[in-house]
Specification:
Blueprint (H helix, E strand, L loop, with lengths): L19 E5 L4 H12 L3 E6 L2 H13 L3 E6 L5 H15 L4 E4 L14 H29 L2 E6 L14 H19 L4 E8 L8 H4 L2 H10 L8 H12 L10 E4 L16
Parallel strand pairs: 1-2, 1-4, 2-3, 4-5, 5-6, 6-7
Helix pairs in contact: 1-2, 1-8, 3-4, 4-5
Amino acid sequence: MTAQEPIANPGSHRDARGRVVVISGAGGGIGRACALMYAAEGATVLVLDNAPETCAQVAKEVDEAGGRGLPCVADVSQEEAVRQISGRLRGEHGGADIVIHAAIQRMPGHLDSLPTGSFDRLLEVGLRGGFLLGREFGRDMVARGSGVLVFIGSTAAYSPYPYTGAYSACKAALVMLAKSFALEWASSGVRSVSVSPGMVRTPMTEELYSQPEVLAGRSAVAPLGRIASPDEIAQAVHFVASDAASYMTGSDLLVDGGFVMSKFMHVPGRG
């Protein structure tokens, strides 16, 4: 195995049987990868997405992979909807053991011409949605004395991605939200962490990476020399949510192939 090849089997200790995992944005990309990963371990997975067809499809895939898929079509930015979902899960399954917030709505544009509604909508789904999911499902975790919140951040929380509207601001705030939950709930036995991916090939970015010159150029600026797959991000999520990371809370785990730390590799005069 070379340094550029992903690890196919991260270990044999994995077992989520009996666990209840809630995943927003589970209809595709990183969210779907997380859903199928936990399904293979026998977990019950609440597949939360705003698209009925993809929501139902992924729930079916969860069943086929060995888990139990619970399709749930909802807008995570709507307070009453999230409250009803958490209440139903509490009544039927005793609440969630792990909540993964991966939902985001792409609203690109230049800031000087970005519609206010586009700015607001991205924050509603990405940030407000994370707050609502964390608060509503986290309350049951606090009462029970255990549970993990995982927020999907981004390297955009460290360095802004231009022309992506509120995306960078949202991810930076989401990473800080994870830290806020961590501090307030640590004494209750609840952990809150974030995972910040770098460049990942997902359905949302496929139009970009299907261009050979873009794929080659972006791969070249990652020290590991390639673009990540959603499965690799899911493996990182699994780690921070597992007992193997039981002393981690408030941390942000960069999964970026070394990209953020490599800026001086791309300026004149290095070496």
